[in-house]
Amino acid sequence: MKQIILTGGGTAGHVTPNIALIPKLKEAGYEINYIGSYDGIEKKLISDFHVPYFGISSGKLRRYFDIKNFTDPFKVLKGCREAIRLMNKLKPDIVFSKGGFVSVPVVYAAQRRKIPVIIHESDMTPGLANKLSLPFANKVCCNFPETIPYLPSGKAVLTGSPIRQELLLGNRLSGLKFCNFTANKPVIMVIGGSMGAVAVNNAIRDALSKLLENYQIVHLCGKGKQDSSLNHITGYIQFEYVKEELKDLFAMTDVVVSRAGANAICELLALKKPNVLIPLSAAASRGDQILNAKSFQKQGFSAVLEEESLDTMQLIDTINEVYTNKATYINAMSNSKQADSIDIIINLIKSLT
């Protein structure tokens, strides 16, 4: 049986595409191991899939001044040593990396042991961790045609992002029952990402009374970001996050309000959900979500609002516009040429092992 190591962590976006590949990898006869950080979000997310998990030391590589910049390089070096030992122990035939800083030592260790490496870059331009890993990769998968010029010649493969197939199997009535919603009123789902988004949460809550005149709202607000004062409002329900029920919530939803992380928006595209994107501002990020959102807006998949200029009436008007014209958005997404990413990536893995 061939062996594969999956790696990636730090946020859910660096883990969920790996999770989406697991069933097909098992079906193709691969024995899977996962390398992440000692206690990162990836450890918790992978635990449900009966895949052996190995933790290594991980340090963040920052572009700005921070006292940890003087200590984290030693964590990275320790992680490299631990990753090399794991390569010797597990003897993988290939490594698939979804990025995040924990992946850099793993990719480096694989290259040291002459093990083929495939990297997946979700955003329009490569993040720092993937930039550091690019020289060691045999192939680099990406979501957007615009990404290819940023990647080494001959390595880039346009694949799209692996989507968890169970998301396509949701039941609308089960979602309505889970939220205690009526079937006679449209539903908005608000998603702020795995860590939640304070700006998005605040904007929705400020607009709540007006929105609830015409919609029901399920709000995935992030860990520790629930507002208990809103718990008894009819037509509004909030969760820190959901797992098994997410597919049913998507099935019942008419409009999604979301951040613009690449994996999240690729899920919206696959599910053909009309959406309003509020990308993380350039002041708080490297601007990748802004580029992602503009690409989807240009293709007619999404309406986009800038976080910096977001106000209550603008949000309400945009949601109303997307709901009123939802057929146009659905039609644009239905005509998308997005590749069958899971099969393409599995075939790429097979070609290198």
Automatic annotation (TrEMBL):
Main location: membrane
Membrane-spanning intervals of the chain: none
CC annotations in GO: plasma membrane
Example of a GO MF term: UDP-N-acetyl-D-glucosamine:N-acetylmuramoyl-L-alanyl-D-glutamyl-meso-2,6-diaminopimelyl-D-alanyl-D-alanine-diphosphoundecaprenol 4-beta-N-acetylglucosaminlytransferase activity
Occurrences of domain Glycosyl transferase family 28 C-terminal (ranges): 187-341
Catalysis performed (reactions): di-trans,octa-cis-undecaprenyl diphospho-N-acetyl-alpha-D-muramoyl-L-alanyl-D-glutamyl-meso-2,6-diaminopimeloyl-D-alanyl-D-alanine + UDP-N-acetyl-alpha-D-glucosamine = di-trans,octa-cis-undecaprenyl diphospho-[N-acetyl-alpha-D-glucosaminyl-(1->4)]-N-acetyl-alpha-D-muramoyl-L-alanyl-D-glutamyl-meso-2,6-diaminopimeloyl-D-alanyl-D-alanine + UDP + H(+)
InterPro entries tied to this protein: GlcNAc_MurG, Glyco_trans_28_C, GlycoTrans_28_N
Keywords associated with the record: Cell cycle, Cell division, Cell membrane, Cell shape, Cell wall biogenesis/degradation, Glycosyltransferase, Membrane, Peptidoglycan synthesis, Transferase
GO biological process: carbohydrate metabolic process; cell division; cell wall organization; peptidoglycan biosynthetic process; regulation of cell shape
Membrane-topology annotation of the record: Peripheral membrane protein
Pathway the protein contributes to: Cell wall biogenesis; peptidoglycan biosynthesis
Cross-referenced Gene3D superfamilies: Glycogen Phosphorylase B
NCBIfam families linked to this entry: murG, PRK12446.1
Function: Cell wall formation. Catalyzes the transfer of a GlcNAc subunit on undecaprenyl-pyrophosphoryl-MurNAc-pentapeptide (lipid intermediate I) to form undecaprenyl-pyrophosphoryl-MurNAc-(pentapeptide)GlcNAc (lipid intermediate II).
Record protein name field: UDP-N-acetylglucosamine--N-acetylmuramyl-(pentapeptide) pyrophosphoryl-undecaprenol N-acetylglucosamine transferase
Annotated source species: Lachnotalea glycerini
